[in-house]
Specification:
- The structure is a single chain.
- The chain is of the alpha/beta class and 378 residues long.
- It has ten helices and twelve strands.
- The protein has a seven-stranded mixed beta sheet with strand order 1-9-8-7-4-2-3, sandwiched between helices. Strands 10-11-12 form a three-stranded antiparallel beta sheet, with helices on one face. It has a two-stranded antiparallel ribbon with strand order 5-6.
- Helix 1 (25-33) crosses helix 7 and helix 8 packs parallel to helix 10 (361-377).
- The relative contact order is 0.19.
- It catalyses: O-phospho-L-serine + 2-oxoglutarate = 3-phosphooxypyruvate + L-glutamate; 4-(phosphooxy)-L-threonine + 2-oxoglutarate = (R)-3-hydroxy-2-oxo-4-phosphooxybutanoate + L-glutamate.
Length: 378
């Protein structure tokens, strides 16, 4: 370590990861309290089922779900849900908006599914977003609310004319859910993992499902068992089975109980502070600190040039080539300030800062001061 940052400048908590994200001490305390209870016990027994029930009820309140919408949980993380959607939600053909690594991966899954027609892909450049457009023969429209790899947030509204055509809207909310505003009624499946705004570990997917999505899954899965059917829906990818188990407050396969405990604690914390409006305002405050700092800086600037497209969950900041981000990050890490690296596949000289609800805006302010301190000495 060549730069020693004064303690007076450092954040109280130096975790700024874009996922896995900061876990609050209270969540760890919840695990300690569960050591002689739910941890290490069957997920089909009352103590764990009560945790799942609390998660489902808490998210229903948090997202202010419309009548008929339901919460489903399953194993495998949001990347597994891409395959669930290909197996159970897309009937014949989907349209995708792609503008980064994760939105592109879902489109690739649909292209590789042998029982689906090639998707219509509307591609945007990294740092921008591109929404799919109404397309003949498309029954499912998909894009990401927040592209974690680039720090771009996209609007969530149904493609005009898609609902009238009976098409579903399927949104990846992995790094957005709990951090960005959302009108769930504009979606049919809003899915995410808990290792971002919900401050837990990965390996679990959660989906908010509309009545239309529930009906579509039942229809597609029934057709997959018909004589001569080409589609294969294994139990692990069955959305109907996942929903039926969720209604019993359990998952199809054994979950990581610690993940459930931490997520349940985070949901109660968010709801106790005012529900969705509170974390979205808190994240917006943290993001504003970073964007304002970068706009005033002599060596840094926001990667996303359009302010309307800038994420308030994951903030990406480009550095001048004369100041290698790798050196800045190394010095920050040596001082206990961690996980602010840009997305590796994007390949930019960049900082990427997760400003999820658990991150204190005051720590974000301290982060900017620490970067300035390091930059002046490199």
């Amino acid at each position: 370590m060549s730069v020693i940052i004064p303690d007076s400048l450092k954040p109280n908590d130096g975790r700024f990861g874009s996922g896995p994200s900061k876990i609050r001490p209270e969540q760890v305390a919840a695990l300690d309290a569960a050591a002689l209870g739910p941890l290490g016990t069957s997920h089909r027994q009352t103590p764990v089922k009560q945790i799942v029930a609390s998660i489902r009820e808490g998210l229903t309140q948090f997202f202010n779900l419309p009548d008929g919408y339901e919460i489903a949980l399953g194993n495998g993380g949001a990347s597994a849900f891409w395959e669930v959607a290909c197996a159970c939600l897309i009937e014949r053909r989907a349209a995708f908006g792609t503008y980064g690594s994760f939105s592109s991966k879902f489109a690739a899954s649909a292209k590789n599914a042998p029982f689906l027609e090639d998707p219509a892909v509307f591609e945007g450049e990294p740092g921008t977003y591109r929404l799919p457009e109404l397309t003949e023969g498309v029954d499912t429209y998909c894009w990401a609310h927040n592209e974690t790899s680039t720090g771009v947030a996209a609007p969530i509204r149904r493609v005009p004319g898609s609902a009238e055509a009976g098409a579903l809207t399927v949104i990846d909310g992995t790094s957005a859910a709990g951090a960005l505003p959302i009108d769930i009624s504009q979606t049919d499946a809003y899915y995410f993992s808990p290792q971002k705004a919900f401050g837990s570990d990965g390996g679990l997917w959660v989906a908010v499902l509309s009545p239309a999505a529930i009906e579509r899954a039942a229809k597609v899965e029934a057709s997959a068992t018909a004589d001569g059917a080409r589609r294969w829906v294994p139990p692990f990818l069955s959305l109907t089975q996942a929903l039926n188990n969720s209604r019993k407050d359990q998952t199809l396969n054994t979950p990581a109980v610690a993940t459930l405990i931490m997520m349940e604690n985070q949901i109660r914390w968010l709801n106790a502070n005012g529900g969705l409006a509170w974390p979205t305002a808190r994240c917006a405050e943290s993001a504003s600190i970073l964007y304002s700092w970068a706009e005033k800086s002599e060596y840094a600037h926001p990667f996303v040039t359009d302010p309307a497209a800038r994420s308030t969950a994951v903030v990406t900041i480009d550095l001048d080539d004369a100041l290698p981000a790798s050196q800045v990050l190394a010095e920050l890490r040596a001082n206990g300030i961690v996980d602010a690296s840009g997305y590796r596949k994007l390949g930019r000289n960049q900082l990427r800062v997760g400003v999820f609800p658990s991150v204190d805006p005051a720590d974000v302010e301290a982060f900017t001061k620490c970067v300035d301190y390091v930059a002046e000495r490199l």
